[in-house]
Write a structure and sequence with these properties.
single chain; 68 residues; two-stranded parallel ribbon; 24% strand
């Protein structure tokens, strides 16, 4: 059972990582599934990428409330 008071924020800085965003989300999902007693959020901070990093991160966040 997940304890709503146990939130873990995973903060990942990214720069031109478009080709790795899908793998990051997959890894986050696997980690979250392996630790069901915690609530998790993935906070991705983009530092001005010139590729599609921001767009891909925004698309993932639009579908899920646990990705910011």
């Amino acid at each position: 059972m997940t304890d709503p008071g146990r939130l873990v924020s995973i903060i990942v800085p990214v720069f031109n990582e478009a080709e790795n965003i899908a793998a990051l989300v997959d890894r986050f999902d696997a980690f979250r599934a392996a630790n069901p007693t915690y609530r998790f959020e993935l906070v991705v901070t983009d530092d001005g990428s010139t590729d599609d990093t921001a767009a891909l991160t925004s698309a993932a966040a639009a579908k899920r409330p646990d990705i910011v």
